[in-house]
Hints:
Radius of gyration: 21 Å
Oligomer: single chain
Mean pLDDT: 81
Shape: globular
Helix content: 40-55%
Low-confidence stretches: 1-13, 170-176
Structural class: mainly alpha
CATH class: Mainly Alpha
Number of strands: 3
Distance between the termini: 50 Å
CATH superfamily: Winged helix-like DNA-binding domain superfamily/Winged helix DNA-binding domain
Number of domains: 1
Strand order of the largest sheet: 1-3-2
CATH topology: Arc Repressor Mutant, subunit A
Amino acid sequence: xxxxxxxxxxxxxxxxxxxxxxxxxxxxxxxxxxxxxxxxxxxxxxxxxxxxxxxxxxxxxxxxxxxxxxxxxxxxxxxxxxxxxxxxxxxxxxxxxxxxxxxxxxxxxxxxxxxxxxxxxxxxxxxxxxxxxxxxxxxxxxxxxxxxxxxxxxxxxxxxxxxxxxxxxxxxxxxxx
Length: 177
């Protein structure tokens, strides 16, 4: 009877399993393309085109976007929803409050707690950046069909979800966004 390692294929999968690991060249190409994407995304911060280009960092964009989508919330809820700790949210929100993009008020039921809300100025700025980023996505994918755009978006969403499953949020709550 062969030993356990002898019963595995060269790539480490059980030959009786229907699922096989992708070939190493595909995984090498994927990891390289993700690294190139990360570098290019950082270079442009996916800032879009026009006047709004490069004008909002990733942390600010994600915080404002979450407040816009979910609504006013406390620091702990915002931190949990984004998968970061409260001290990080507090530090990242401070310049947004100073810039008038977010308002900070006392919680109506617990005066010690803080409620963060997207201000009208913050909503306008967020829409400006979103519009610029939509323009960038349209420019980058101008030769793509609608189906290719939808497929790319679905696969990128799945990829991000799988990354989250491997490296879960530091704080329990909804998946980081």
